[in-house]
User: Fold these one by one.
Assistant:
Number 1:
Amino acid sequence: MKIFFFPFLFIILLQSEFYSHDTDVQELQGRAYYFSMSTLELGNWGARMSEAQKKQIRARLKNRLEKTYILNFSPEESLFTEEEKVDAISGATDSWGSNFARGKQYKNIAKNNLVQAQEFYGKRFLVKDKLQEFDWKLGSDTKEIGGYTCFKATAIVPTEELRWYNFEWSDLSNNSTDTTDKEIQLTQVEAWYTLQIPLQTGPAEFWGLPGLILEVSAGNTTMLCSEIVINPKEKEKITAPDKGTEINKVDYRSTIVNKMLEMRNNRGRRRG
């Protein structure tokens, strides 16, 4: 884990100040609620659609574009889970999208350990791997989020490392075994963290800053914390998921792509 400090030493001074005033960090536990919103990218297909058609698609995909999550956290561990929604139009859950959604995610910072439960076409997987690496650059920009003073940090990450559980049909054309001159797509990450909660965790894959991450934007998705409960009376025990076939991120990604390739080929043979 690397953190690049811009020449603004007051950030470090503020950090030490919060540590001295706040509750013993080792006893700090809490729960944070995040609202996630993604923009809809229709590409060339969308260029041929009317605004009314685009609006209709956005409404039908609302459950995929807007999500709510809960992060239960302690100094070393966190558990990030999605609140399941029922489709307001059909009255059903998003069965197709659930195959490529982020599952229940456990992070252990002390052990550099990720455990994530994924379900893909009825089969359960238990993805075990290291935490995602971020080379954070800390800036001096500040803003308030829910009464907490937050500082800005940025990082650049290979796109595929952030969306290893997800899938788009274009992934099949990009999945060539020939890696010669293959361009690596990168994603700019912008995070806002608060030193008033001096824990290195955050929503989803994001972590490694001097304070809890309250807002993060990566690609077409932004997650914003809407509520924080510090040291609740009823504390939830943070435990890692434990059901499913054990696999790492790279192999899970290959499993998804190979299965979707098989489905596409089978569909092509039926049409032929």
Number 2:
Amino acid sequence: MSEENQNVFDKSNSDTIEKNFEKLDEIVSKMQSGEISLGEALEAYKEGTLLVEDTAKRLDMIEKQIDAVFEDIEVDAVKIGMLSTPECMKAVAKKLLQYKPQNVVIDPVMYAKNGCPLMNPTAVSTLIDTVIPLADVLTPNIPEAEKIADMQISTVSDMEAAARKIYAMGCKAIVVKGGHHIGNAVDVLFDGENFYHFETSRIDTKNTHGTGCTFSSAIASQLAKGKSVPLAVESAKAYVTMAIEHSLAIGKGCGPTHHFYELYQHGLSKE
């Protein structure tokens, strides 16, 4: 299965799990109301049982996908993106604790490029308690950092304060991405001891679809090659900046970045 199709499959699976739990909540509320007949209650019970069974199968599928990778190849780094429900988070966390991989980069995706929410609001506490402590590097953007740290971010100093607050939740390092900030694009890395600022000029383009995924994946790739966290972030920042600079105007919405511009221009390098 291609990476694009796999991502679509994972999102569809996650969305269905969330919808199942929404339906279960509705069934429970209806049954607790006492305003349904015995026959309706029996039908609701049957529907609820089927939803629970379907959800269990889908969560099991997530775990088996992870097993398939770890049982087949040596894993040098892990990048985790959108986990929309507490159940998905717990399933992934369970496997991270089982396999204990190095270089776990987690992008806590909460919002789409157009601002639409991608994470169930009830899942934030599970993210903080279960997922964040497993991250070697966490890469929230400003809206995500605001949600996790429960504070407003308006300046680079605010980004540093949020980074400190989120670091205390258990991750080994955090990069607060400044793409949503006014002015130059400044990313702030905190590793528990030092702050590092990575600044580039802002590129005037709407074609930034996938920049967060690209950035976190690039960090994971560089960590897998043996780079330190600051050097990995520096390389990833340069890579995603190049990809944005040569982004592709495809379609009417936010187009994608050009991941392969340097490859097409200069071919493979030893680095």
